[in-house]
Amino acid sequence: MTTINYKLLTPGPLTTTDSVKAAMLVDHCTWDDDYKVITKRLIKKLLQLANVSEETYTAVLMQGSGTFGVESVLTSSVGQLDRLLILTNGVYGLRMAEIAQYARLPYDVLEFPYNAVPDAQVVAEFLDTHPGITHLAMVHCETTTGILNDIQAISQVAKARQLTFIVDAMSSFGGIPIDVADLNIDFLISSANKCIQGVPGFSFIIAKKEAMLATKGKAISLSLDLYDQWETMSKDGKWRFTSPTHVVIAFEQALQELEKEGGVKARYARYQANMTQLVSLFKANGLVAYISEARQSPIIATFQLPSYEIDFNEMYEFVKSQGYAIYPGKLLDLNTFRVGVIGEIYQADIERVSGIFDAYLTNKKIER
Ligand SMILES: *Cc1c(COP(=O)(O)O)cnc(C)c1O
Which molecular function terms from Gene Ontology are attached (predicted)? Predict the structure, then answer.
């Protein structure tokens, strides 16, 4: 077995606790009640985390990574007589457009720059000049850059026009408080391996019951049929097809640990403290954050490399040899890299990482 002794500063999969990993040392069967009640408990807990009532909201788990959840929602809720507007300011927004394209859904894309949030005024104007749009989809934390989008402002635009509001909250749910009911969100998508701090293997969808019921018969894919999955699972906690048992058990452990930490608020505070420290220590190292402070999420940050020549791969190997895995940048026009602060990461880690970068960059300057 290969032993890996570095922590992940990546936005999922991320560094989990030993207890979450240990929870997976069980081979659980799937047909009996012991197992099905776990799924039922998870659904209940997710609704509690979202702070929504079981009368108006419901939840469902879906095999696969986060994208499978997004694809399930888009292809099960947007019919041929509907029209979807996708707001983008990063690759995850663009991925929704790709899903719509593959599925031949009727859709429009409204693009914003990667370092700016979708502007509610612009969105409202677009909607008013493009009647016929029934669904509005956007990303909450755009993991591409780490920018935190203003779902509150856009939700008002959506609500005023009675649009179905779809939010990809993959990298924020569980780590940033989200007022799902207040924001009138119809479908929120997240996954096991992000802020809940579980391992990869399934996504989950929190949906308004009414919106969920409206997906009946609309899906164009069997395995991603949201309604069918939900109907089967809400009966007795049964997954339609093989469920990722180890992931499910680890997820329950992760949820318990989230509760123990003090819930979403406490986790948010830890992530926020990590990020504030990261941005300020890196600034002292000469590494400038790409996103403005006001829009910087407490999840992941993009940094511009200093003007002198730095090879990301070489830097990556050095940082990894010192115990941390970072993430490449996703911007085409700038030499950047990303550092995530979610998972089992604390301020001591941030200090250590800053020291590692300081050593690397100082050395590079001397070499020159
Ligand atoms: C992680 C992530 C996804 C899903 O990515 P997968 O690789 O399919 O898990 C979708 N949207 C956002 C914003 C993400 O951060």
Answer: 2-aminoethylphosphonate-pyruvate transaminase activity
Element (H, E) at 133: none
Q: Is 267 annotated as a binding residue?
A: no
The answer to whether the beta carbons of residues 163 and 208 sit under 8 Å apart is no
Q: Which CATH number applies to 20-259?
A: 3.40.640.10
Q: What is the pLDDT of residue 181?
A: 98
Residues with CB under 6 Å of ligand 1 are 11-12, 65-67, 92, 139, 143, 168, 170-171, 191
CATH 3.40.640.10 residue ranges for the chain? 20-259
Q: Which amino acid is at 169?
A: A
Residue nearest to atom 5 of ligand 1 (CA): 66
- From 171, 297, 302, the mutation candidate for ligand 1 (largest count of ligand atoms within 8 A of CB) is 171
Q: What is the pLDDT of residue 310?
A: 86
Evaluate whether the domain defined by 7-12+263-367 bears CATH number 3.10.620.30: no
Q: What is the radius of gyration, based on Cα positions, of the chain?
A: 21
Ordered mean pLDDT values, 10 residues apiece, the chain (368 residues): 84 94 93 90 98 97 98 98 98 98 98 98 98 97 98 98 98 98 98 98 98 98 98 95 97 98 98 98 94 97 85 93 93 88 97 96 81
**Residue 12 alpha carbon, nearest atom of ligand 1:** 1
Give start-end residues of each CATH 3.90.1150.10 domain in the chain: 7-12+263-367
